[in-house]
Every structure is written in C-alpha cells, then in structure tokens.
Amino acid sequence: DEHEFVPSKTANKASAFFLKVARLTETIKNFLFADRAPENAAYISIETKRLVKYGEALDRNMDDWSDNEPGWPMMRVRGDPNRTAWAIYPSHALYYFYSFWVYLYWIRFLIARVKLHEALAELVKSDPDVTAPNADKSEIIA
C-alpha cells in the first residue's frame, strides 16, 4: 500500500481501501470454495462472522473519507441544472468533481465498495447458521 504513488493522503486512503477490499474478496473466494465438510459447520460459521465483521469495519472506516482535503467531496452545483448546456440530462448536472483525477479515485472507491458488498452478501448466504432450516427470519435477512 505505501509503495503505490498517489497524489495525496485522501487518494492514498481510497487506494488502500481498494487494495484491502481486493485482498478480502480473495480471502472470501478461497474460503467459499474450500472444502465444507458438515462436521466443520461451527468453524465455518465463526470464520464467516469474523470475515463479515472485518468487511463491515473496513466499510465503516471509509465514512466521510473524502472530507479531509478540499476538492475531494462531490460538490453540489449551485446553478439551475436545467440551464447547464454540457449536461445531456438535467440530473447529470447535480454534482461535479474538482478534477478528473479525483473522479478516478472516486470511481475506484465506489467499485471497491460494490465488490465488498457483493462478497459479503455471498459470504452470508453460505453461512450454515443462516441457511439452516431452523434459522430465525432476522438472521436470514441480516
């Protein structure tokens, strides 16, 4: 993480998040495709809960990640979006970014976040405690 060239601390935080999510999704993939003997159900459930908690903590740590430096948050356009000539649709003019590079780091962050949520959903679906016939409805929804 520290060897990747990035223009700022905020960009570094987005890059570190992306790399951590990539490592976590690889771990989850290996875990999901590993041998799942019925006698290991307790271990599988404990490991599933551990990975989910780590993923949730990783996601929570990125709250307000772009607010540390000026120019990084998505900025509201103050003008009337209907009169914005460069927007094909009025909704496209609601937000803009400080620069193209900030936009690319936002895309990187959002892709990582989507992949994190997909991996966690697959992980929860494979938990033997949740998929058991006697599982509580709230456990299945969670």
Description:
- The protein is an all-alpha fold.
- A two-stranded antiparallel ribbon has the order 1-2.
- The protein has helices spanning 9-32, 41-60, 100-125, 128-131, 137-141, and strands at 75-76, 95-96.
Uncertain parts: 86-94, 137-142
State the helix count.
Answer: 5
End-to-end distance: 32 Å
Strand content: under 5%
Short description:
The chain is mostly helical and 142 residues long.
Q: Can you tag this structure with a few keywords?
A:
elongated, mainly alpha, two-stranded antiparallel sheet, single chain, disordered C terminus, 56% helix, 142 residues
Topology:
Blueprint: H1 9-32, H2 41-60, E1 75-76, E2 95-96, H3 100-125, H4 128-131, H5 137-141
Antiparallel strand pairs: 1-2
Helix pairs in contact: 1-3, 2-3
